[in-house]
Amino acid sequence: MTVLESIVAGVREDLDRRRARVPLSELEAALDDLRPTLDPMPHFRGGDLSVIAEVKRRSPSKGDLADIQDPAALAHSYAEGGAAAISVLTEERRFGGSLADLDAVRARVGIPVLRKDFMVDEYQFLEARVHGADLVLLIVASLTDAELTRFLGLASDLGLTPLVEVHTEEEVDRALASGAELIGVNNRDLKTLDVDLANFGRLAARIGDGVVRVAESGIFTPADAAKVRDEGADAILVGEALVRHGDPERAVAALASAAR
Length: 260
Ligand SMILES: O=C(O)c1ccccc1NCC(=O)[C@H](O)[C@H](O)COP(=O)(O)O
Description:
The chain has helices at about 5-20, 25-30, 40-45, 70-80, 100-110, 120-130, 145-160, 170-180, 200-205, 220-230, 240-245, 250-260; strands at about 50-55, 60, 65, 85-90, 115, 135-140, 160-165, 180-185, 210-215, 235-240. By secondary structure, the chain is an alpha/beta fold. Helix 6 (about 120-130) runs parallel beside helix 7 and helix 10 (about 220-230) runs parallel beside helix 12. The ligand O=C(O)c1ccccc1NCC(=O)[C@H](O)[C@H](O)COP(=O)(O)O binds next to strand 10 and helix 11. One of its GO terms (molecular function) is phosphoribosylanthranilate isomerase activity. Keywords: Amino-acid biosynthesis, Aromatic amino acid biosynthesis, Decarboxylase, Lyase, Tryptophan biosynthesis.
């Protein structure tokens, strides 16, 4: 079993437990009272490099990253530093995240929020919407073409912007065929956990200019941000470098301005 397959197996078990506690009908009923979602695309298409700053406690590749006591305060610092959106890891077993983190961040910031998780079931999309997410992540490597198409439609029906994540040429082709408008190139191979910052540059041209391109993972320095910007990134998604930094507001500002 690959790392990704083992993460997804755990996600499905946790999902079954939540579904037993909160039935789908309860989530559906809650949809009526929600505020409209925020659209991140105008910012991502605005010309400057957008920073999607992540709340990330732990990871399968690095173990414990940061003791985040107040995820809302961290997200607020990111927003003050100029982040275009906040990514909140909600997967519990491997990343130490939760829907409570998503709730807390949503309540504190006025910029778009991404529910970063392993989306494999319709239930999770309703959860994402009810807990205040504006974006959701669709990882091509863990979905069939039929699931990708179905989940893109579901996200759109709920007003959620899908960030479609790829790592290989074949996944780029599948993402484009599905009609994705926002594609994230993960520099981390989710099967081996190896990180190669050059992966974004390898795949960017294949994706093309008409799609908003996000460089994900392994971005630590302003020079890294400038490199992927030069290769065509509209946005970067950064976790470890920010949660380990003593001054997250300044760290976001430095990454955003490096590429101007
Ligand atoms: O971060 C991991 O080790 C990881 C392992 C398996 C699946 C997903 C994983 N990370 C999710 C992410 O995509 C990253 O959190 C995100 O791109 C930020 O990466 P980084 O800046 O390198 O923390």
